[in-house]
Amino acid sequence: MLKHLICVALCLLTFVCADNIDKNAEIRSFQSDASDAEGNYQFSYETSNGIQRQEAGSLAGVRGSLNYVSPEGERISLSYTADEEGFHPTGDHLPTPPPVPAYVLRALEYIRAHPPLLKEEN
């Protein structure tokens, strides 16, 4: 059920992005292999305004990608997987955490090299 919800959400995202770029976009290609008896499926499509989407899934998980041009004219590429661990998107446009400061890395290394001694109970 979660996989279907994620798929629908990503489809809606695609359509929202398409609406902001070109309301007259046409579908250039569309391919779909419906779900088989084991739950495997795949689909892909491309539109005239540069949107490309593909996805393949099974009971074990989903893998796919989405490419489009943002309203600012920047090419956005998103790849993702979804499995029992959740949804895992990757893309250069996604925010990333700041690097770990050097002093924190040194402290962690010191703690690893000098583990605290546990006091023995009497």
Automatic annotation (TrEMBL):
InterPro entries: CHIT_BIND_RR_consensus, Cuticle_Struct_Prot, Insect_cuticle. The keyword Ribonucleoprotein does not apply. The keyword Signal applies. One of its GO terms (molecular function) is structural constituent of chitin-based larval cuticle. Keywords: Cuticle, Signal. Pfam families: Chitin_bind_4. GO terms for cellular component: chitin-based extracellular matrix. Residues 1-18 form the signal peptide. PANTHER family: CUTICLE PROTEIN (PTHR10380), CUTICULAR PROTEIN 65EA-RELATED (PTHR10380:SF238). This is Pupal cuticle protein Edg-78E. The gene is Edg78E_16.
